[in-house]
Write a structure and sequence with these properties.
By secondary structure, the protein is mostly helical. It has one domain. The protein is 81% helix and 0% strand. The longest helix has 49 residues. It is globular and about 65 Å long.
Amino acid sequence: MTHQRLRDSEIFFAALLALAVALTGSRALGMFVAEGASAPFQPSLVVRFGPATAIANFSTFFVLLPVALAFIAIGIPFALRTVAAAWRRELQTRERNGVVLAIVTVPALLAEARMGGSGLITFTATAALAYWQLWPALVVRGGRLGDWSSAVAGAAALVLAYYEWRFLGGGEPSRFIAPTFLVIAFYAGAAGLALRLPVALALPRAAPVISGVIVAATLAWLAAPQLRGHATSVTEADSLEFMIAAISASVLLATGLLARRRG
């Protein structure tokens, strides 16, 4: 399939989506760690290798800061080009509506801040808006990007599982490398799901198996801390969480690579 060049508006909305997801993802990752802290037979392996403070700092440094810089360098120039095209009436109706709604998010963010909000609602709405605008482009390109994202998530989760295995064998928990790969696995896994969805819905006969495996493996990895409740002791719970995380990570990596090879 020949891929057409991305339009200026699509590049802008891609940068906007990345920024909005980075801002909302840090909250979601914090909730993931918090759920791990409340898991049965505490503390879970996720909490031991991803304390809330470290995860917040790593998420900001490795994800939010690079994405914000990329938005300034790429998103803003293409936003200006998109607005100029809208002024010249060169945009499609869908794109014009997206530009208008994107502009509306600015006063919406200010209003939410005045009401004491954190901006989470506005950022989530912005991510949904950008995702909607990118949907046609993701139908064409989402499969390849989603497969690579899932493979990266699986590889990062396997590195994290290695450090968990060392810890279960009596080693000290990693305070830098393992949390870094936890952040990478979380964001890459979420990206893999989001990128795969448009392809799965547009090509229901070609993509359901791969998409289903990716979704199941990602959800299993996220649910691993809570599944500790099926154990009968802390030691057994640690082993169960490790096994589920390692297996789901291996499936993610293998599925992503296999899908790319078939593609």
